[in-house]
């Protein structure tokens, strides 16, 4: 009896979260005429392969280009951003210097500023350097991750013993080498968490590319699909491409989570105990 | 606002410097002089497949190369981007702006007046009168864009169902209301009253003689409750009260389905609506036909318009002459219009454009009817003096909220217009736009 209630609640939640994905999968497998005329939650003629072919061929495969862009923007920014956040958080945790707490507080304040609010100021700044509508105008701002710094600091304090650092100093290891060979390994579960958080944040940061980019070949997949979706009234065949594209675009996220969920759980758990 | 105008002024000053020869005093009147050497223009638009059209131009004009930038449609983000870019001083040379958004760009001083370009003013007669009115705001010496496409309205109806049930095709709005009763009796709805397509309602009001905005050069007036608009709102409110129209939200799957399954029998829509029905209701192929829009007085021939856009040159463009030249080619030459129609189903704003081969053929989906003939006639029947306001985005939003309430029984369309009138005036005041009470 004790197990039944949680199972029912979890089951309902799972159902609730999976239905939209199920809907998307079913919708993407239909032809355009069947999409409106058949039941939304069950298959009609299975045309997923044709839809995919059409999607990948449309406008010289611009969709694949968008997917690649997204992977580079998010994967690249998350990787570099995680390293930066780890180094920063580690320094804040392990070195004593003047203004350390002040810096940490400012970084913590940065957590509260939504990325959306920064998009327009960033646009004006990049305009000064005539660097809007470039790869860097989206990539550089995406590297910043104050929440990652916060997590890295908490985790470094908890998991990297000072004695170990002293020992490595005595053995003649430089600070940078110590960080990359010893500390970063101890912090690894937290780094995975930071990476995933960062990955999702950049993937979902829609406003920045919307404001910065005008060159279609630079779009991430989110902006590209949104653009198509606003043109559906004009060009109805885009509807199936948007649906199929949406389905394909969640695949990298699903893969990232499935591969990294082991670390993700560890990281969340240990971050919580401190 | 002030910061914006400072930026704009400095951008203008820069433009004047770089054009070299022009005298300082008359910088404005000489603003359409050709540039020397090769020119690269940037053009932002969300027209699908535009690259193929621009490529034709680029191949023929090595001295004036056009670079396309794209994005979501205007209200989906591109207008906001334009305003940001104007603020930052890096707006593209040319931009795609719908008629109802042009005044807001003009109020913000974001557009180049092309009235000094002789080629532009000479092209006036090529365009259908009302489309030219949309880009000149009915003023002398002002051309703030080149008309691109139009959305003349007509009545799409299920020919088979009307015939089967012995209902005559309505030619007046009274007959339309009578037909609505019979359609209801036959188990359908005559149409869906759209709660969010305020520009469709504007098309109805436009046809009836409503004129929502006016600008006498110093002040705006807002007239969302003029006699004609009140009449139109009262008419539709009557149909809503008698439950003769459905209130399914437009552009949803449900809505498509209502047309696809024969629940909704007519749609008073613009020329581009032909494709919306084709894609939304594929099962009804061959059963539709198009008739002129129902009239307010029997025997009249007045049409409304829903949609349409222009190609505008932004303030700060260093090459207005070349930009205007490209915009004219894009929107008047047969090759460009044919391609625009093929790629994005744009309906040309020129008189000659209505005779494109693609627009002279019978359309299979509509039982082989030459439906574009109906729209060509309608385009000539749209009144040329309808002016949009400078804050349409918020006007649409307020009206849409009111309309949504009205179709669900809270208040009426007339209430919605009253609120929209008040909010629009308030909003214009808050943006320091001079407005008469």
TrEMBL record, chain A:
Residues 67-259 form the ABC transmembrane type-1 domain. InterPro entries: MetI-like, MetI-like_sf. The chain crosses the membrane at residues 7-25, 71-92, 104-129, 135-156, 186-206, 238-260. GO terms for cellular component: plasma membrane. It is found in: Cell membrane. It is a multi-pass membrane protein. Keywords: Cell membrane, Membrane, Sugar transport, Transmembrane, Transmembrane helix, Transport. One of its GO terms (biological process) is transmembrane transport. It holds the Pfam family BPD_transp_1. Belongs to the binding-protein-dependent transport system permease family. This is Multiple sugar transport system permease protein. It comes from Actinoplanes campanulatus. The lineage of its organism: Bacteria, Bacillati, Actinomycetota, Actinomycetes, Micromonosporales.
From TrEMBL, chain B:
PROSITE patterns: PROKAR_LIPOPROTEIN. InterPro entries: Bact_solute-bd_prot1 (IPR050490), SBP (IPR006059). Keywords: Cell membrane, Lipoprotein, Membrane, Palmitate, Signal, Sugar transport, Transport. Residues 1-18 form the signal peptide. Pfam families: SBP_bac_1. The keyword Membrane applies. Coiled coil: none annotated. This is Multiple sugar transport system substrate-binding protein. It comes from Actinoplanes campanulatus.
């Amino acid at each position: 009896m004790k197990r039944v209630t949680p199972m029912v609640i979890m089951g309902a939640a799972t159902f609730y979260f999976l239905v939209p994905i199920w809907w998307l999968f079913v919708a993407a497998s239909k032809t355009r005429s069947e999409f409106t005329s058949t039941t939304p939650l069950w298959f009609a003629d299975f045309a997923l392969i044709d839809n995919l072919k059409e999607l990948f061929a449309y406008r010289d495969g611009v969709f694949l280009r968008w997917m690649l862009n997204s992977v580079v923007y998010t994967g690249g920014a998350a990787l570099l951003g995680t390293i930066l956040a780890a180094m920063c958080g580690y320094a804040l945790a392990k070195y004593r210097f003047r203004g350390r707490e002040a810096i940490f507080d400012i970084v913590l304040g940065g957590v509260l500023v939504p990325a959306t609010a920064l998009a327009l100021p960033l646009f004006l700044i990049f305009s000064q350097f005539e660097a809007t509508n470039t790869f860097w105008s989206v990539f550089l701002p995406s590297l910043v991750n104050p929440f990652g710094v916060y997590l890295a600091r908490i985790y470094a304090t908890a998991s990297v013993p000072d004695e170990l650092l002293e020992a490595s100093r005595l053995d003649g290891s430089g600070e940078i080498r110590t960080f990359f060979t010893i500390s970063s390994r101890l912090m690894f579960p937290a780094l995975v968490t930071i990476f995933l958080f960062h990955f999702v944040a950049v993937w979902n940061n829609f406003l920045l590319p919307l404001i910065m980019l005008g060159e279609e070949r630079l779009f991430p997949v989110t902006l590209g699909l949104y653009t198509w979706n606003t043109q559906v009234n004009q060009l109805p065949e885009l509807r199936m491409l948007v649906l199929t594209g949406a389905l394909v675009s969640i695949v990298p996220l699903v893969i990232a989570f499935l591969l990294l969920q082991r670390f993700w759980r560890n990281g969340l758990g240990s971050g919580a105990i401190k | 606002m002030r910061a914006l105008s400072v930026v704009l002024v400095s951008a203008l000053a820069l433009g004047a410097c770089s054009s070299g020869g022009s005298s300082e005093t008359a910088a404005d009147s000489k603003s359409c002089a050709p540039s020397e050497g090769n020119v690269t223009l940037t053009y932002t638009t969300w027209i699908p497949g535009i690259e193929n059209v621009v490529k034709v131009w680029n191949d023929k004009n090595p001295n004036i190369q056009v670079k396309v930038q794209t994005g979501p449609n205007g209200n989906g983000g591109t207008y906001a981007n334009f305003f940001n870019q104007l603020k930052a001083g890096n707006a593209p040379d040319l931009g795609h702006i719908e008629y109802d958004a042009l005044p807001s760009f003009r109020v913000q001083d974001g557009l180049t007046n092309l009235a000094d370009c002789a080629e532009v003013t000479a092209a006036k007669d090529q365009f259908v009168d009302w489309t030219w009115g949309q880009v000149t705001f009915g003023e002398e010496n002002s051309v703030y864009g080149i008309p691109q496409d139009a959305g003349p309205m007509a009545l799409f109806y299920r020919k088979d169902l009307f015939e089967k049930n012995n209902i005559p095709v309505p030619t007046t709005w009274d007959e339309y209301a009578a037909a609505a009763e019979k359609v209801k009796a036959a188990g359908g709805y005559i149409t869906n009253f759209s709660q969010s397509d305020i520009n469709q309602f504007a098309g109805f009001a436009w046809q009836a003689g409503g004129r929502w905005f006016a600008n006498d050069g110093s002040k705006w007036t807002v007239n969302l409750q003029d006699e004609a608009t009140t009449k139109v709102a009262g008419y539709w409110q009557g149909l809503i009260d008698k439950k003769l129209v459905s209130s399914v939200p437009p552009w949803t799957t449900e809505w498509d389905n209502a047309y696809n399954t024969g629940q909704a029998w007519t749609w008073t829509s613009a020329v581009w609506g032909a494709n919306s029905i084709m894609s939304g209701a594929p099962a009804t192929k061959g059963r539709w036909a198009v008739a002129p829009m129902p009239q307010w007085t029997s025997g009249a021939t007045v049409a409304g318009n829903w949609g349409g856009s222009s190609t505008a040159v932004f303030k700060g463009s260093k090459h207005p002459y070349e930009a205007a030249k490209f915009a004219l080619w894009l929107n008047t030459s047969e090759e460009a219009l044919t391609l625009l129609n093929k790629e994005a189903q744009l309906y040309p704003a020129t008189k000659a454009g209505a005779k494109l081969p693609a627009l002279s053929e019978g359309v299979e989906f509509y039982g082989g009817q030459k439906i574009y003939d109906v729209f060509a006639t309608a385009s000539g029947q749209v009144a040329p003096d309808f002016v949009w306001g400078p804050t349409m985005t918020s006007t649409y939003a307020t009206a849409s909220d009111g309309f949504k309430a009205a179709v669900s029984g809270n208040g009426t369309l007339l209430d919605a217009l009253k609120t929209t009138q008040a909010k629009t005036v308030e909003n214009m005041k808050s943006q320091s736009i001079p407005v008469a009470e």
